[in-house]
Amino acid sequence: MQNILIDADTGIDDSIAILFALKQPGVRVVGVTTGCGNTSAAQAAENTLRLIHLAQPPYNVPVAIGANAPLVGQWDGPVPHIHGNNGIGDVELPVSPQKPLAEPACDLIIRMVRKHPHQLTLVTLGRMTNLALALEKAPDIVPLVKNVVFMGGTLHHPGNVSPVCEANLAGDPEAADLVFRAGLDLTMVGLDVTMQVRLTAHHLDMLEKYAREENRPIAAYIRQAMKVYYQFNRLQNNCLDHCPVHDPLAVLAAVDPSLVTIRRAPARVECGGTFCRGMVVADFREHPIDAPYLSICTEVDARKAVEKLITAFT
Amino acid sequence: MQNILIDADTGIDDSIAILFALKQPGVRVVGVTTGCGNTSAAQAAENTLRLIHLAQPPYNVPVAIGANAPLVGQWDGPVPHIHGNNGIGDVELPVSPQKPLAEPACDLIIRMVRKHPHQLTLVTLGRMTNLALALEKAPDIVPLVKNVVFMGGTLHHPGNVSPVCEANLAGDPEAADLVFRAGLDLTMVGLDVTMQVRLTAHHLDMLEKYAREENRPIAAYIRQAMKVYYQFNRLQNNCLDHCPVHDPLAVLAAVDPSLVTIRRAPARVECGGTFCRGMVVADFREHPIDAPYLSICTEVDARKAVEKLITAFT
Amino acid sequence: MQNILIDADTGIDDSIAILFALKQPGVRVVGVTTGCGNTSAAQAAENTLRLIHLAQPPYNVPVAIGANAPLVGQWDGPVPHIHGNNGIGDVELPVSPQKPLAEPACDLIIRMVRKHPHQLTLVTLGRMTNLALALEKAPDIVPLVKNVVFMGGTLHHPGNVSPVCEANLAGDPEAADLVFRAGLDLTMVGLDVTMQVRLTAHHLDMLEKYAREENRPIAAYIRQAMKVYYQFNRLQNNCLDHCPVHDPLAVLAAVDPSLVTIRRAPARVECGGTFCRGMVVADFREHPIDAPYLSICTEVDARKAVEKLITAFT
Amino acid sequence: MQNILIDADTGIDDSIAILFALKQPGVRVVGVTTGCGNTSAAQAAENTLRLIHLAQPPYNVPVAIGANAPLVGQWDGPVPHIHGNNGIGDVELPVSPQKPLAEPACDLIIRMVRKHPHQLTLVTLGRMTNLALALEKAPDIVPLVKNVVFMGGTLHHPGNVSPVCEANLAGDPEAADLVFRAGLDLTMVGLDVTMQVRLTAHHLDMLEKYAREENRPIAAYIRQAMKVYYQFNRLQNNCLDHCPVHDPLAVLAAVDPSLVTIRRAPARVECGGTFCRGMVVADFREHPIDAPYLSICTEVDARKAVEKLITAFT
Questions:
Q1: Binary contact (D241, A206; C-beta < 8 A)
Q2: Shortest CA gap B289–chain C (Å)
Q3: Which of A264, B207, C65, C86 would disulfide-bridge C45, Cβ 3.0–4.6 Å?
Q4: How far is it, in rounded angstroms, from Cα A76 to Cα A308?
């Protein structure tokens, strides 16, 4: 059994990643923490609670609300053209009886790491603010974390909020750099790989066709939520009824590392500049900078990844 | 006949580039302008004059001294561990009877562009300060320039002054960005290709073996100058009696564009940040930034390039 | 400072790996354990002591003798046609005043892991017998080991003792499989990458030319020891004055993970069969076997690796 | 006219391969022999007779029943979850008036090879038991066989019955090794290529749309039979309404060798081991084992292959 804690700014692709984690055999989600990004931290928690209610896992999944602003500066507000007004494509999922914890996100992270020493994988799907706050508050947890897999950044693939920057890291560069400097076993699932994996309209057909009875509402949700997301990806990236698989790939790679190919290098996050604030700076020189090594996913078995994603619901 | 004007901070690899241009059939060097970088602008001019004297071209090559500081900030001073105390590996070439022009570098650039409208290729081997000053002073020359080929920058290859930055652009980011924004036909010969082309001790043997009688002093000069350069490349990059071919490849690509593979994208130069000041920001997204397209060399026929370089002297 | 413990059957390439580790800045070798393979465990210890004496590290490096037989069956005896009669190409290095520990190899491994919890990298260059014995005797050290990097095995490259098997794993498949099953952070530096990195006669020239004064005896040793090794590689693999870099690459990858590209999969070692006894069985299927994930090096920056190796002595 | 004899354990993909062979212009199927595997040898013959009846070739195609067990051990029984209860996806094809020969499969092989000396291509789509028995009984036919193309084995692609083994070879390793040792012109169409070629739901639509009038029942059969096969491939390999093209590709490669890229090496079949029994052991070393060369398909023009397959019916 693999324990994972997910930190998310629960938008559309986050929601699929969370549903996958809840449904994938052999995986136990010990908690979900939320932050701002695709939507507010509070709305992200509300979405997450409804998604857990939809998935009906056979165990309790605590949800904690986290930072609603990056370490430096303010949150720009939600992105309804990408994720709808409510963050999950304006789908009205049934309200969950579960409430978020009173405990802030960073405390839940700290508590769960200590509860599962060397046995907990952290997967961040949004900005790294909550994880950074946890590491600031309790730096002693670093050696207790099994590993961290994050969706974010890019090495050579074009960025999505600047020519060279990805949104999750650009959304809180200081937090990301703090995590990069902490000395964790850290794996980056960035645009180099997430843009290679596509969820197509055909895949949605397959999902509906093959979803287990209990997962039909999930399939229906995904199809509905994808409408907004497909439209954005078409307008932004010329994607014709398909979209890249960002957040779910981070969970997939955490669960099945055979999906990706990895290169390692000392890395930092650029916190200044006009185009580069939030950029991953990985150093492959003979005499690199003094920074912990980052594991960077450079290739992915795209077919295997996307079909594993869908198969979790069938 | 192809007219080229070279702007150089005449160090060791610049010197080989200049000698190649002077010796390559079909090429006429209409002038050399100098700036600070590998050495001072004045020393670069002195070196250039002696190199022209060494090469004995059958026509006059005017030399003009340019900027001894970047547009913003100061020059850090010479780099004797790379290029020797005099910029050309401490080789004492015979003094030339020729003197530099009184005219500043940027004025020579403007004058030569106007003299050869649509017929002049500018090749910059150092910082882009002189070219930027020329464009500021006479923006009307932009449409008169045939094309510009510059050695500098990097797309995906590690940098040489930071994990992601190359020295020529990092030495004057504001000048480079001004050139990038000007709307010229601009080709970047950066580390992605220059690091693929290696001048080995074996090549130097071949050069000596096959140099024409008149070029034996050139071959002797190159072997001697390479000593310092090989040593630096060994200490910096673990290169064992070989070195990358930076500046000569820019002239080679200007003279024979078949050597390189090109990708084009709107591009700017990052002028801020800790790791990224001076970085080339090329935008390969579906909806790129509003900037002129840059032609970026991504692949090179390395054997063809280096053997063409040596063959010019044989 | 990176702590490493090396387990070796100190033959020619092991000796270069050990010398590299002793000379590489930032690395501290906390001990060397020896086993049979290229030579006997006792001779391997004798060779190791002389190599340490040759390298003169500014700290004490304890040496412990380990298993002289695999877990199952017998050792086939030395391979003088590959490594000379004494394991290090019949070079007669000066005798060291240091003696091996009375403590067996597996106990030194256990002791050092406990002394440096989460801070010790184990690098095995021969069979995994000693490490397997340590894990059998003290399974509690598994979570205390930082990581293990081993030279051995092959994924897709041809083997060297059968079409599909490499000597270190084929020499003790049961030990290797025990290590594979233990749940360590385990990286395989196998023939897929070691055969891509070549140490040429030219490199030896460079080593002699650039070795620091104190390292001249090392350069002389390497040149002399290489004679036997080059001859074997010529006869066995048609290598004309060069050889693959096996054992040193494991230390290189342990010290600088940026050199290699990695894929991960659940893996076991085949312990039966005619051609396949000792083969690495990595499972990239959708529903893989239940085994810990192995990190498999699939690509290497060959130039960077070999020049980093030589540069440690310059 | 190319004469081929097919040996099959007539399951779903075998059936498409046989139908293709019967419909492909320029090909004459001189006989079909059957063995156990996907179904029993007798049921495979029954399926084959009905397929021939469905295809209505303008000549007689004799069918002979062969071995119902491997050379060593027992047959594990049919695999209804892959090929349905009757081997052809539970499709009830019309009964054929033709009966199987009284002659056993191996005798038909021997007789046909002698009847078409140097003019007959053998294509095996299941275990190699029948061919091995023929070679044992009449070793003199080896030089009379034009060539053998078999579906089975894998070089670098993951296996389907173990991490490294494919079902046809693992089903009778001793038979396969006997064939490998015989000295035939032997081509392996294994998972390295068959997994690259996908028959999708879209292809089935195209087949129905473009099938010639006389081939409509074939198109209907294929669509129906594919239901079971798609389901298995979905459950086993997460394939969403597509499947790899195993057996048809062997016939395709026999008929049009331009479809595949081949590497040749001496090869044997491992007959022992836990994970490797039935594995292809190809030796690409400088000094390989003493075994006949095997031609191994490593790449395939996937689009060309699958469209040629479908086009045979249009």
A1: yes
A2: 32
A3: C65
A4: 34
Nearest to C295 by CA among C269, C276, C271, C267: C267
Structure confidence by residue, pLDDT tens digits, B207-240: 999 999 999 999 999 999 999 999 999 999 999 9
Question: CB under 8 Å to B107, separation ≥6 — which residues?
Answer: B64, B134, B137
User: C154-180, pLDDT tens digit by residue?
Assistant: 999 999 999 999 999 999 999 999 999
Q: Are strands C198-200 and C242-244 parallel, antiparallel or unpaired?
A: antiparallel
Q: Residue-wise over D178-212: b if at least 16 C-beta within 10 A, else e?
A: bbbebebebbbbbbbbbbbbbbbbebbebbeeebe
Element (H, E) at D31: strand D27-34
For domain A2-311, the question of CATH label 3.40.50.300 is answered with no
Q: What is the tens place of the pLDDT at every residue in A146-201? A: 999 999 999 999 999 999 999 999 999 999 999 999 999 999 999 999 999 999 99
pLDDT reported for residue B130: 98
Measured between beta carbons, the chain D residues lying within 8 angstroms of A210 are: 234, 240
pLDDT (mean) for D80-91: 96
Active site residue A140: no
Joined together, the tokens standing for residue B55 give 């090469």
Which one of A142, A186, A264 would you mutate to disrupt binding with C, by most C Cβ within 10 Å of its Cβ? Answer: A264
The distance of Cα C140 from the centroid of its chain, to the nearest Å, equals 24
The whole-number pLDDT of residue B297 equals 97
Would you say residue C237 has pLDDT above 90?
no
Question: Which whole number is the average pLDDT over D185-200?
Answer: 97
Q: Would you state the pLDDT for residue C182?
A: 98
* Beta-carbon contacts below 8 Å between A and D: 20
- Return the ∠ at Cα C62 (arms to C57 and C68), rounded to 5°: 125
Which phi and psi (to 5°) does residue C29 adopt?
-90, 110
Q: Where in chain C are the domains?
A: 2-311
Average pLDDT on D187-207 reads: 97
Give the 3-state secondary structure of chain B. Answer: CEEEEEEECCCHHHHHHHHHHHHCCCEEEEEEEECCCCCCHHHHHHHHHHHHHHHCCCCCCCEEECCCCCCCCCCCCCCHHHHCCCCCCCCCCCCCCCCCCCCCHHHHHHHHHHHCCCCEEEEECCCCHHHHHHHHHCHHHHHHCCEEEEECCCCCCCCCCCCCCCHHHHCCHHHHHHHHHCCCCEEEECHHHHCCCEEEHHHHHHHHHHCCHHHHHHHHHHHHHHHHHHHHHHHHHCCCCEEECCHHHHHHHHHCHHHEEEEEEEEEECCCCCCCCCCEEECCCCCCCCCCEEEEEEEECHHHHHHHHHHCCC
**Which two tokens mark A226?**
């994808």
- According to DSSP, residue C256 is labeled -
Which of A24-28, A148-152, B150-154, D284-288 has the weakest average pLDDT? D284-288
Cα D110 from Cα D132, distance rounded (Å): 11
Count chain B–chain C contacts defined by CB atoms under 8 A: 19
Is the pLDDT at D101 greater than 90? The verdict is yes
Q: How many residues does chain A have?
A: 314
Q: What six digits make up the tokens of B146?
A: 């045939």
Do the two chains B and D touch, given a threshold of 8 Å on CB pairs and at least 3 pairs?
A: no
Contacts of C304 in chain A (CB under 8 A): 286
Residue written as tokens 């070439």? B93
pLDDT band at A124 (very low <50, low <70, confident <90, very high): very high
Mean pLDDT of D250-262: 95
Average pLDDT over all residues of chain A? 97
**Taking CB atoms and an 8 Å limit, are A202 and D239 in contact across chains?**
no
| pLDDT, average across residues B250-277 | 96
Answer whether D156 sits within 8 Å of C156, measured CB to CB: yes
